[in-house]
Amino acid sequence: AQALVAKPDVLLLDEPTNHLDLDSIAWLEELLVNFNGSIITITHDRAFLDQVATVIVELDRGKLRSYPGNFAQYLITKEDQMEQEAVINAKADKLLAQEEIWIRKGVEARRTRSVARIGRLETLRDSRSARRDVVGRVNLDVSSGEKSGKIVAELTDVSLSFGHPGFEKIIVSHFTGTLLRGDKIGLLGPNGAGKTTLLKLILGELQPDVTTPPGKIRQGANLQVAYFDQMRDALDLDATLEDFISPGSEWVEINGQKKHVKSYLTDFLFSPERARSPVRSLSGGERNRLLLARLFARPANVLVLDEPTNDLDIDTLELLEDLLQNYEGTVFLVSHDRRFLDNVVTSTIAYEGTPENPGFWREYEGGVTDWITQSKRAAQINGGNKAAPAAKAASANKSAPAAAKTDADAPKKKLSYKDQRELEVLPALIQQLESQQKAIEQELYDGTLYTRDAKRAAELNARNSKLEEDLMTALQRWETLSV
Questions:
Q1: Are 350 and 168 within 8 A, CB to CB?
Q2: SS3 157
Q3: In CATH terms, are 151-369 and 417-482 the same topology?
């Protein structure tokens, strides 16, 4: 606000989307797109760059390069450039190898031609030494610990509020959901909505309000939880990097394998020489990398990540995405990085509370883009029957027949998240089963297989019968969920 009120000709922004919620980011994007002056922004928010940027300037291996267009266009151009670099570097390395062989044969270098060739060899050596063709990349791995139970948490009609009766602030109102092992859950909501509070409810750190009927929370078995936000709060600036990662020991254990702490730190781009440096000497991005290193060194089957993308470079972001996608445990992710959420989460719990209906949270399948699409569709459905919320509230105090009438007029009841996920994958499963059946029938069609390979024919018939059973089960389930 202070920067914009002066109506500058040039606006300099350093990570402007950090700590902004989604509504604020959307507002800022619209403002910057319509801004008449020039804008220079440092950011690793890829969705923000796609919306706002017209030129990308990259600092890569000590060189500044400019790319026209937004981030998506930059990626295309950058990929072409890297392919060309790889070809050029391969040719240079081949020539260097040939010259090294020549010089090692002990060729006389007194003639002018030989002296010139030795000079070229030295130039090639210097060029190869100066060329840093491998960009520093974080090598992420995570100690996943023992498996948790299949159900991580099951919440039924859970509510939570703070404050004195009559003046309380409702944080969660009648939330119901089931979270399973392996789910990647994103929590969305404006700053102050209560995302962290809801997380604590889910993980059993807070107890729900006593209501009638009572809300219930059932935690899964063998939960080992690691928190990114708590580590950030407990960052010891005077500790050395290696002591922060592994206090009192030179070793860390990742998935049952011991690794020296200095070697482990190099996976996160900290050289062995820096292992004894104090944490306070690190930049913001380096501190976040160090926190991730400590987080992933702890055996855990549930990861809670609160704004993990702040100050991380794009390469590290993409590697973190890959790790979380392949992580066998459960992930709870509080973030306003839309691209990161879209690439990682399998479901989203979004705050949709209003002054009339505070503390309302709804679960959606997919990431931010899916949430926006589905919430718009839900708003359109509800908008067609504006009286529905009031009717639903009134029905609680009326007789059963009146309640039945309200239910008949209301939109179709929303499927649970798990049922919705199953419904969406069933068509592809049915198509796959039908394709396999068709392939078997074609192989058996002319009847010659029965004489050529009776065993193979019997196996195919048995397989075909099993496919028929699976297909009927899938079709019946599809019909049930579609009603």
A1: no
A2: strand
A3: no
Q: 65-80 b/e with 16+ CB inside 10 Å = b? A: eebeebbebbeeebee
CATH of 417-482, one of 3.40.140.10, 3.40.50.2020, 1.10.287.380, 3.30.450.20: 1.10.287.380
pLDDT tens digit string along 387-426? 333 333 333 333 333 333 334 444 445 567 677 777 778 8
Q: Maximum Cα–Cα distance for the chain, whole Å?
A: 109
Q: In this structure, is the dihedral angle defined by the CA atoms of residues 343, 152, 483 and 173, taken in order, positive or negative?
A: negative
Q: Are strands 330-334 and 184-188 parallel, antiparallel or unpaired?
A: parallel
Tens digits of per-residue pLDDT, 350-391? 999 988 899 999 999 888 888 888 877 666 656 544 433 333
Q: How far apart are the first and last CA of the chain?
A: 51
CB pairs under 8 A, 24+ apart, for 250-253? 252/297, 253/143, 253/297, 253/299
Residues 6+ apart with CB under 8 A from 459: none
15 in Cβ contact with 43 (< 8 Å): yes
DSSP 415: P
Q: Enumerate the H helices of 71-177 as residue ranges.
A: 71-104, 112-130
Neighbours of 265 (CB within 10 A): 24
**Closest to 130 measured CA to CA, from 94, 99, 89:** 89
φ, ψ at 470 (rounded to 5°): -60, -40
